[in-house]
Amino acid sequence: MIELDDPRWEGLKGGYRVTYDPRPAIRALEADENRRDLWKELWNELDHQSDIGEVSYAAVIALVQIEKRRRRFGANLLALAATIEIERHRARNPPVPAWLETEYREAWADLAEFALQDLRSGEDDERVKTALPVIALARGQHKLGAFLMWLDESELDALVEHRLTWSEAYGKATWNEP
Length: 178
Description:
The chain is an all-alpha fold. The protein contains nine helices and no strands.
């Protein structure tokens, strides 16, 4: 694991293509301080308009390690990690640094497990919406993962209406029960 006191954090660039040190935000999240502002900061700095940097990968690893110990981030972690993984494949973004590759892959194995646990728990719709893209991405289904991540409710409605003639074929059927 890349420890938070590891000197390799220094000088890593974030989404703005300038150095960013996420460790204070990560430490504060671990301590459960002002979570909304901290997640907003991490989202803003680690992924800026589809640009990510090396520190984005390191932050995913660190956040996953905390999640393994504390189980407190849930949908925020899954959504941020999925976004970073999707953007990792964008040609203009840097690859995972060689010294982080193994840990990043291991973090993704853990993220898939978190997502499966979230699906099993059935706690809320937001967790399902973040778990499904993570599972697809973890299985190497990058297009499907990106599709699931960025598909909003109105697009889903239009898609199923167009492809499945949903309202005609299914009417007002509810799907709350198996």
